[in-house]
Amino acid sequence: METLNSSMTYDQRLSEVDIRGSMAYAKALEKSGILTKGDLEKILSGLEKISEEWSRGAFVVIKSDEDIHTANERRLKELIGDVAGKLHTGRSRNDQVVTDLRLYMRNSCSVLSAHLLQFIKTLVERAAAETDVIFPGYTHLQRAQPIRWSHFLLSHAVAFTRDSERLGEVKRRINVLPLGSGAVAGNPLGIDREFLRKELDFASISLNSMDATSERDFVVEFLFFASLLMIHLSKMAEDLIIYSTKEFGFVTLSDAYSTGSSLMPQKKNPDSLELIRSKAGRVFGRCSGMMMILKGLPSTYNKDLQEDKEAVFDVIDTLSSVLQVATGVISTLQIHKENMEKALSPDMLATDLALYLVRKGMPFRQAHAASGKAVHLAETKGIAINQLTVEDMKSISPLFGTDVSQVWDYANSVEQYTTPGGTSKSSVTAQIEQLRELLRRQKDLF
Ligand code: ARG
């Protein structure tokens, strides 16, 4: 039972925030007359000593320490005697643990946000440096239309900015103080919660003690944010894994982010990207696991909730390393412009051929059919579509003229997409500018 019940192996990570919460609570107790000035001084200096022991790695955990809260209080008593017993007046581990967790996660959100913004910036700046590279855009993993390589990088960056915004919203909802809610009914000592809020730098105080001690919406939201971020990362990883194969040959991962095979000397494996992709499963597992724990729980605190911490810590650690590795992969990735260009084929310009006719007045449906005929004709002749003569083209539609040769130019093709959001140079540049602006704004938010 002791082994099952103890959370000490992992909730030690809350040691610092637990002490911070206790210091604030002790001050509030002094304000409400429960502690004398002398008591408060003793408690604060004892807590400071404990904090210092934790930071030196000198805190000795003993077998009967059930969790970080009981461990810190046990040590406080050893250091300052019976007055330590006054600290927990009107407080419960129920409001204490959730206060600790919110303090801890608030801080972690800022760290993760910095990693995420750095990663997005790496994508955006790479896109800015490589706007002239054109390669195939795929739908259904089939060659679809020529696009700029930057357009591809930015498509991922944009998804990550939504993740970054979402993290900001999660942080906002984490930033609510539950302390002063007691076990279930509230605090009977007239504790000044507004004072606690200021001491611990929360944006607001929770509204209802029953909800405050037992809701873990902020945990689920964080795990969901993390899951969606990981899904976006795994999609990008999958794209790059495909692009790094010999068959595509668009990119090469730097050696720092790949490994060799123990058996096949020629192999270079994209392990970093595979690990990123796999962690999406791990993180979502934590998210769904937490939701299953919450499902069907009665009001209010139940020990089931102790499980929240391992999920949160594991996901924080996973995101932290994944984001830093992803940044490294993108900043050191080598691209092979020639292979990207070689992968473009004239059939990818069939849409442009239809658009040529549209610009000469033909309804799109008809133009689509005419372009289809040209594709078919080229196939039966065993040549590429751009090898058809003007006469061949004219046999399909009299609207075709010698100027049709302009269609067979990939750079011209991408330059048509000037509408906002498109792949022309002007549109891609505008996207880069907007993302840079967004990154500046989000940096200020955290
Ligand atoms: N270690 C516990 C947790 O993580 C602290 C709260 C215990 N509360 C209780 N009523 N037993 O949730």
From TrEMBL:
Pfam families for the chain: ASL_C2, Lyase_1
Q: Which domain of life is it from?
A: Eukaryota
Biological processes annotated in GO: L-arginine biosynthetic process via ornithine
Give GO cellular component annotations, separated by semicolons.
Answer: cytosol
Q: Name one GO molecular function term.
A: argininosuccinate lyase activity
User: What keywords is this UniProt entry annotated with?
Assistant: Eye lens protein
Domain named Fumarate lyase N-terminal: residues: 1-285
Q: Which PROSITE patterns match?
A: FUMARATE_LYASES (PS00163)
Q: Which residues form the Argininosuccinate lyase C-terminal domain?
A: 348-415
In which family does this protein belong, per the annotation? Belongs to the lyase 1 family. Argininosuccinate lyase subfamily.
Complex formation: Homotetramer.
PANTHER family found in the cross-reference section? ARGININOSUCCINATE LYASE
NCBIfam families linked? argH
User: What name has this protein been given in UniProt?
Assistant: Argininosuccinate lyase
Q: Which organism is it from?
A: Chrysemys picta bellii (Western painted turtle)
UniProt lineage = Eukaryota, Metazoa, Chordata, Craniata, Vertebrata
Gene symbol here is ASL
